[in-house]
Amino acid sequence: MGKTKIGIIGCGMISDAYFKAAQKFNILEVAACADVIADRSAQKQEAWGAESMSYEALLGRKDLEVIINLTPPLAHSKVTTDILNAGKHAYSEKPFGVDADDAAKVIALAKTKNLRVGSAPDTFMGAGQQTARKLIDDGWIGKPLAGTAIVMGRGPEKWGQAPFFYDYGAGPMLDLGPYYITSLVNMLGAAESVTAVTRRFDDFRTLGAEVSDAYKDQYKPYDKYPVTVTTHLTGVIEFKCGAVITVISSFDVYKHGHSPIEIYGSQGSLQVPDPNTFGGPVKVFRPEVGEWETVAMPFRYSENSRSIGVADMAYALRSGRKHRANGELANHVLEIMLAFDKSSKAGGKVMLETTCERPEALPLGLDEGMLPE
């Protein structure tokens, strides 16, 4: 099987993880890269061998089948639209978009052009998340009834080079929420409603010791940066399977002691590992045992494997099957996340308009660097 040639648009912080992980998948070849700051893509060419070129040249390159969009969140829908209009399949970094209408237009355009769209996170395809899902599917905790998904910290102002985390399109929900909500949908299926209360406790936060070139003319280290998003979001997601999951996502907490995700079933409980990683541990509690037990992870890809969603898309293009980190999943996750602020503003439950299929589980016994055809 020949390699699928891919391009990368956006050579910032996350791009090295994609360049590196793509090398482990036999089907992928990162052939080209572009960035609005030309020096960045030139550096990636030197480091990884992908040819550095302009945005327009990359979109026009005929040998590229899939283009990965690693631009900032506010640009995701626009750049993905450009990729589709160039006749390429598109895979975006999370979130899928920052506006529900724009994201819906991307889905519609892909269908019109008979092209595929996908989006991070693809961590749900890692060994930890796949093991947790198999335990649920195999009935280890019975019927899922309730649970928690909690991601809290003091915020990323220590990364002064990335103050956009407090801009519209970011915040704790759209930045970290995709990992947690996608994990829940992978395990439980589509959701039907969100009821939430959200807050912004500070109008300004202080940048860290480093400020990137893009902001250095406006901000100096330890300057105050305006907060334009809610920074503490708490609510309940009701899933179509009947499970009720309490979610908290916050940049306002110094320390907490909660597990990332726990699922409570009719016959036991499950501790799910951090969905921002590919590994474990995975723990299960059953009353006949009386304590948490760490479960062996029988799946591949427990280390950082960002690009696995792109590799899965490449295999799916060859076989015609549905790829796992697909646009419908990402669009449903986006609506769930946006519904937290929407519910808080409305003062009540928000019924979701989108839905999706649960991504197909990965099989056991995969060889390293391979995925199902």
Overview of the structural elements:
With 373 residues, this protein is of the alpha/beta class. The protein folds into two domains: 4-123 and 304-326, NAD(P)-binding Rossmann-like Domain (Rossmann fold); 127-295, Dihydrodipicolinate Reductase, domain 2 (2-Layer Sandwich). The protein contains nine helices and 17 strands. The strands form three sheets. It has a nine-stranded mixed sheet with strand order 16-15-14-13-7-12-11-8-17. A six-stranded parallel sheet has the order 3-2-1-4-5-6, sandwiched between helices. α4 packs parallel to α5 (100-113), α6 (127-137) packs across α7 and α7 (171-188) crosses α9 (327-346).
Question: What's the gist of this structure?
Answer:
The chain has 373 residues and is α/β, with parallel strands linked by helices. The protein has nine helices and 17 strands. Helix 2 links the parallel strand 2 (28-34) and strand 3 (51-52).
Give descriptors for this structure:
alpha/beta, six-stranded parallel sheet, 23% strand, single chain, 9 helices, 373 residues, Dihydrodipicolinate Reductase, domain 2, 29% helix, Rossmann fold, 2 domains, nine-stranded mixed sheet
**CATH class category label of the largest domain:** Alpha Beta
The sequence of SSEs as H and E is EHEHEHEHEHEHEHEEEEEEEEEHHE
Structural class designation: alpha/beta
Number of domains in the coordinates? 2
Secondary structure blueprint with pairings:
Blueprint: E1 4-9, H1 15-22, E2 28-34, H2 38-48, E3 51-52, H3 55-60, E4 66-69, H4 76-85, E5 89-92, H5 100-113, E6 117-119, H6 127-137, E7 144-152, H7 171-188, E8 191-199, E9 204-206, E10 224-226, E11 232-239, E12 244-250, E13 261-265, E14 269-272, E15 282-285, E16 292-295, H8 308-319, H9 327-346, E17 350-351
Parallel strand pairs: 1-2, 1-4, 2-3, 4-5, 5-6, 7-12
Antiparallel strand pairs: 7-13, 8-11, 8-17, 9-10, 11-12, 13-14, 14-15, 15-16
